[in-house]
From TrEMBL:
Species of provenance: Halomonas urumqiensis
Protein name: GMP synthase
Gene Ontology cellular component annotations, sorted alphabetically: endomembrane system
Any GO MF annotation of the entry: manganese ion transmembrane transporter activity
Transmembrane segments: 164-184, 196-215, 227-250
Superkingdom of origin: Bacteria
Native organism taxonomy: Bacteria, Pseudomonadati, Pseudomonadota, Gammaproteobacteria, Oceanospirillales
Main location class: membrane
Record's keyword annotation contains Lipid metabolism: no
Subcellular location: Endomembrane system
Keywords from the named record: Membrane, Transmembrane, Transmembrane helix
Amino acid sequence: MSKPTRESLAHEHHPEAIRRRLNTAETPRTLPDAILGGIDGCVTTFAVVSGAFGAGFSSTVALVLGVANLLADGFSMAISNFEAIQAEREYIEDVSRSERRHIDLVPEGEREEIRQIFQRKGFSGETLERVVETLTQNREVWVETMLKEEHGLQPAGLSPWRSALATFLAFMTVGAMPLIPYAFHGMGATRQFAASLAIAALMFFLIGMGKSLVYHRPILRSGLRTLLMGGAAAGLAFATGHLAQLLFGIDI
């Protein structure tokens, strides 16, 4: 990705541009949820396909197992993500209530916490006291500062429903891709698996590339890294299925 020019940076740091950026409400970040859901969906379904092919199961069995895992795991992952974000929100609310109570009961102690936090950042003397006085004049700013600086919590941008939906949709969409060849029964098991392998590899690579564009990382490196991680999971599933065939004498 090309580096921004001095002119573009100057434009972005104009007082009015900064004001608009800071006044824009922070929206929930769903991209990490979508990336996680997409990768996990593709890994899950292709792992099932690989395991079924390695064990010698028919394409119909592979398709049924893949669809069943796609629905069950996609729903489970979305619910788990919902519960995780909801638990984090509830924890932040509990800490916020606790800080408000501390401000009511021991305001000087809470001011001292603010003082020491900013003292560690390099403030001292009259400047430090002005910072403490300014922050503690507004109760909401005071509480928000304590949440971020003392507890390392970011209360903004948490939406359980949005995160769960993003995870589920990405899981279902990307996860369904490796199953497409198995809907065509005339291809033969080997060709179906090869096509599924190619599609899964493409999905992993595209997810990695998309991630790199958003987070400003080298495109090729990110794509290959995601491809290797997904391929490792699929290879493990294939080896497990093949080993199960040898150990238990599965013969389809």
